[in-house]
Sequence to fold (78 residues):
Amino acid sequence: MASGITFYRSRKRLSQAALAEALGVDGGTMSRIEAGAMIPTAEQVDRLSELLGCPPPYLFSKHILAEVADRARSEATS
Fold:
């Protein structure tokens, strides 16, 4: 699902470990985000977009972006 991350990470010539460090997560978390097995936070989506130099829709499927937006709204109202 999140193969856009892999594509843009490769274009930037970043290893998954280097991207994880820049994002402030461990390698396992980065692997799960990249594979679409873990939904990132809104802040992580913004940071990935900055690090990889492309808009969030290029990194994730619409399903994942909808989940991130729903989670952010829930957190804002609690």
Notes: The CA atoms of residues 3 and 34 lie 6 Å apart. The chain has a mean pLDDT of 88. The first helix runs from residue 3 to 11. Helices lie at 3-11, 16-23, 27-35, 42-52, 56-59, 62-77.
